[in-house]
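Progress note, project year one: complex with zinc ion.
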Amino acid sequence: MQCGHAVSGNGYTNHCPKCLWSVHVDEDPGDRAADCGKPMKPVHAFLKGERIRITHECTACGLRKNVNSVRADDYDQILTLMRASAERMF
Ligand SMILES: [Zn+2]
Ligand SMILES: [Zn+2]
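Model obtained:
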């Protein structure tokens, strides 16, 4: 993982709580069907209804995926990411 923090995924949230990087292992959340296995960079965070979602982009194949984030651990990083996303808009 990107920052060296050990990630124990539960099948749905396998991104790192420290840096929000993920790994391209799923086609659909939790299915482990992707062969890619490369790091996925967090590029965007947004609200969908009452849930925060993170967009990950695969550094190898460029696939983009939105994942739900429901962990309180993630919030500091998500705020940072949202701020960066907002700054890119202006
Ligand atoms: Zn990390
Ligand atoms: Zn990939």
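Residues 22-89 form one domain.
Residues 50 and 56 are 19 Å apart (CA to CA).
No further modelling is planned for this target in the current period.
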